[in-house]
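Field notebook, page 864. I keep forgetting to write these up properly, so this time I am using the form the group agreed on. The chain and the ligand, C2E, are recorded exactly as supplied. Prediction of the bound pose follows.
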Amino acid sequence: MKNYNSKQTGAVSILTLLGLKSLSQRYLVAMLVVSVLLCTFAYFAWQFVRSTNQAQLNQIQNRAEATDAINDVSEQVHVIEVSLLRYITLPSQQHKAHIQRAYRLYDAAIIKLLANNWIKTDKSLQDLLMAMETDRRELNITTDKLLATREDETKWFPAMHIMQDRMYRQNRQFTTTLNYLINDVSGELNNPVNLKTYQLLIEIRHSWELMVAEFRLFVSNSFGIFSNNPENGMQARRINTEMYISSLDGLLNQLQQRAKANKIDGLNKSAISELQKQFNEWKKSYQSVLDTFNQGRWRYDLVILHKDVEPVLDRILQRASSLQLELGVASAKDITRVTGVAQSLSNSVVYITIGLSLIGFLGYFMFHRVILLPIAKVARALKNEVLTPHTDQSHLHLSDAREILDLTNAFYEMREQIRSRQEHLDHMAHHDSLTALPNRVLLRDRLSQAMARAKRDDKMVGLMFLDLDRFKQINDSLGHDVGDRLLQQVSSRLSSCIRATDTVARLGGDEFGVVVENVGQADQIAVLAEKILSSFTKPFQVDNHELHTSTSIGIALGPNDDNDVDSLIKDADIAMYHAKDQGRNDYKFYSAEMAAQVARHMRLETQLRQAMDNNEFVLHYQPIVSLVTGQITSTEALLRWQHPERGLLAPSEFMPVLQDSGLMRPLTQWVLQQASAQYLRHNQAGFPQIRMAINLPGLMLHNDAILNLIISTIEQTRIDPTGLLVEFTEDTLLESLVDSKKALVTLRDMGVHIALDDFGTGQSSLSHLRQNPIDVVKIDRDFIRDIPADKYDCELVDAIIAMAHKLHIKVVAEGVETSEQLEFLRHHKCDAIQGYYYSSALDGDKILALIRQNQPMTLVRASH
Ligand code: C2E
Ligand code: CA
Ligand code: CA
């Protein structure tokens, strides 16, 4: 196969370099690459998500554990704090145990945290935990200290012993002394001095009692009793206490003054000093208590709690919340990481979607470029080829892909095939295959062009129609091969007669046409016709046959005869038929009279059809008489047309038209039936030996048509076949020798007699007589007419009779009109005669009457 496409198209040349010649290979490779890329990406994405997932799960678990542990720490810290507080309130072994347990749990939580993977990864977290352990140790020490302090009363409430050991005693001694004095004074109250002292003492006692009461309230308040606001209460109590102290200071001072002024007896003076002393002592003690209070040593256990324990606890809680915070931060980081993964995954999905879309578009682009476009181009090229064949000489350069190359190559193959076939068809459509001459179509074309030119140049166009004379006989007798080669030779002879500018065409069969251009005068074309006719005088040599043929030429001149192609062709055709009719081997110019004749012919044909329908045909019968017995041996049925206007017409008036009309077959059937009926009449009249001769159109003998007609007629009419005698001409034998012989043999086998009509006029051949089952030959009237005057005819008739008799064939002479003719024929042993001498053709009744007379013909009439 020729490769029409060698040009490379850029984009796919890489693929070509890779050795991928076909589209399917390229597609597969591209798909493979894309699939591998996608699979790799998917694998790594899957791995990534899986590992991230696992890491996240581990982290979550670690942090959950850490959270638990941190919560534990905080909880234990609270447990310690609460237990300590409870212990401070009520030192019991149960609270102590709680504290111990909390320590253990705390330690366990810390150990857990130290083992936690999340914490292990971070140094600062580990440091934080170490600090928490240190805190734990410190807490241990401080709580131990607190517990020990709480257990020692003097340590946890230092003011107690001041009040118990000193103030209690001072109070008792003061009140005892005071009561003594009051008792002492109350005995001598009628002494106004004493009364005054007494009143003073009472007042002192009252103030003392109030002072001690206020102080007690102060102490109580310092334990948080009796007041919603102990701070304010204590302040008020202190102020009150100190108010009573200064009041007592004043009252004791008055008492001293009275003593100095001797208003009090001497004994009691020492008691008053004692009062003063005890009061001063009490004040000192009070100051000491106040000092412990003001110096924050009121409850030492609380001091330890606040100053030593709580900071440690707070620190621990702070560190725990730091850890908690770190946890939160780490979780937030994890969440960020997870969302990051999700984000990158969704990004990837977007990228992949974009990528796939791009691949899709690229794929479509490539598909369009590599497949659709070439297909569209090939389709367009095909369409162009169909619409405007042979115009597009361009070559398609589509792709180097094998499939597309195959497609384009197939297209070129097809285009070449189509073109060559088209050319072939064109030639076939315009030329004759046998002779290679232009055909009727091309002749018409050339003729119309020639007519256009003639019009322009004011010239004439000659159109000749030629028909070979008796070509059919040659064809039938010698075979189609010989006929064909004769036609070829004829065509080359014709071509040699004309100029290059003229056209010889074969119109079909043995018909030819010649277009002669540039004709000035009719003479010119007559000369050419003569030339053609004379070119046929030389015989044609085909194989070892020397063939003689002539031609009949009809000539029409455009635009003189007609101005359009169709009419001119018709004219030439008419002229040609006339040339044929007028004896062949001649040329005839078309004339208006010819056309009129054709019109007549057509009119006659129409009338014939009507005649058929109207039953205007009749048969007349002419007797044939034996020259031996003088008796009628047979009658010949002869067709007549009882024309409504023209009267009785003989066959010569209508037979040629009838043969062309297609009415021959039905008419023959009618003749057969009619003649058979007449034969039956003769038969019934007692003359079965008189045969009925019927003329058969030769054309019908070489197919089964006539045979079937005869057979069916015999069957219908039930006549004896031996009573029938069929006549046909020599031409019939020539037309189709084999078929005719077959039919004749069948007829003969049935008992039908056979006569060869018009003997001597056609291409007579002795072999015809010998080979065919012929009973009778009828010598044509032409040969009888001039005997015995014409010596040549006499010899010919004599020879025919002798020859026929040699072949055991009977001889009938036609057209015998005179006794001389009769005499000659009788003398030369002719078997029978037919002619006006005895009788012309008579209608059915008359012939029957003639037969009935049964009068023998006078054989010797010397007087004639
Ligand atoms: P044919 O078969 O040769 O018939 C003999 C012709 O010679 C007849 O002419 C007849 O009238 C004529 N004839 C007979 N004796 C004489 C004579 O002494 N002198 C002259 N001058 N003529 C004589 P007809 O009837 O006009 O027939 C002409 C031709 O028409 C026949 O020639 C035959 O070929 C054909 N024909 C007649 N009838 C039929 C028919 O029924 N079928 C067919 N196919 N052809 C028929
Ligand atoms: Ca005849
Ligand atoms: Ca005849």
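OBSERVATIONS:
- The chain has a mean pLDDT of 87.
- The chain is about 65% helix and 10% strand.
FOLLOW-UP: compare against the apo run.
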